[in-house]
Design a protein that fits this description.
Distance between the termini of chain B: 36 Å
Strand content of chain A: over 45%
Largest interface: A-B, 31 and 32 residues
Shape of chain A: globular
Helix content of chain B: under 10%
Number of helices of chain B: 0
Oligomer: heterodimer
Structural class of chain A: mainly beta
Order of helices and strands of chain A: EEEEEEEEEEE
Radius of gyration of chain A: 14 Å
């Protein structure tokens, strides 16, 4: 059981280049998330999705786009990379939110992106 | 902006001692969760406590929640070198019955357990 898989694990970009991070989960989860983690900043939510075909903005969405064409996949795109987007990106998924809110998140191992 | 703030930022203890980490938050919550992150790895869920619960146990972990003070604590008893990691609290700040669909994470406590 793979859980949450992120590709690629490492990437170096030049300023202005574009790229897509892929997240795949095999747990049939409804909710999927993209976070970025920077030193001293903890995790900040970029975008999330509550189901196939839906996306919503999180805390730091500028400079990123997402798509959820299939339930198991959640793509994060950088159209024109900037050095400020150098970070570690984490994808996560969870079951539907119940009466007591968002459930346990299952995380991928992270994608380390450097923008020169 | 971060909802939860962990305290202390870093903690160093000897193996066998107990480790206590605290989390404070600002708004009402549905639940609060704790996660662990080993260096260079993804986060792993430890425990979830609902807003109507005051204490919860899981193995060597004990979590308390005080909604009147908007704070939570994570206690790891009889710590081991393998417990060395960063620990994060995360809150779901939606109204009961209407989850926010997202968790807001704090900046974490870095725990070092010395053998």
């Amino acid at each position: 059981n793979a859980g949450v898989t992120q590709t690629p694990k490492f990437r170096v970009l030049k300023t202005g280049q574009s790229m897509t991070l892929l997240c795949a989960q095999d747990m049939n989860h409804e909710y999927m998330y993209w976070y970025r983690q920077d030193p001293g900043m903890g995790l900040r939510l970029i975008h999330y999705s509550v189901g196939e075909g839906t996306t919503a903005k999180g805390e730091v969405p500028d400079g990123y786009n997402v798509s959820r064409l299939k339930k198991q996949n959640f793509l994060l795109g950088l159209e024109s990379a900037a050095p400020s987007q150098t970070s570690v990106y984490f994808c996560a998924s969870s079951y539907s939110s119940g009466e007591w809110g968002t459930g346990e998140l299952f995380f991928g191992e992270g994608s380390r992106l450097t923008v020169l | 902006s971060q909802q939860g703030e962990e305290d202390p930022q870093a903690l160093s203890i000897q193996e066998g001692e107990n480790a206590t980490m605290n989390c404070s938050y600002k708004t009402s919550i549905n639940n609060l969760q704790w996660y662990r992150q080993n260096s260079g790895r993804g986060l792993v869920h430890l425990i979830l406590i609902r807003s109507n619960e005051r204490e919860k146990h899981s193995g060597r972990l004990r979590v308390t929640l005080d909604t009147s003070k908007k704070s939570s604590s994570l206690l790891i008893t009889a710590s081991r070198a393998a417990d060395t990691a960063s620990y994060f609290c995360a809150t779901d700040g939606g109204l009961k019955g209407a989850g926010s669909y997202q968790l807001t994470f704090g900046k974490g406590t870095k725990l070092s357990v010395i053998p």
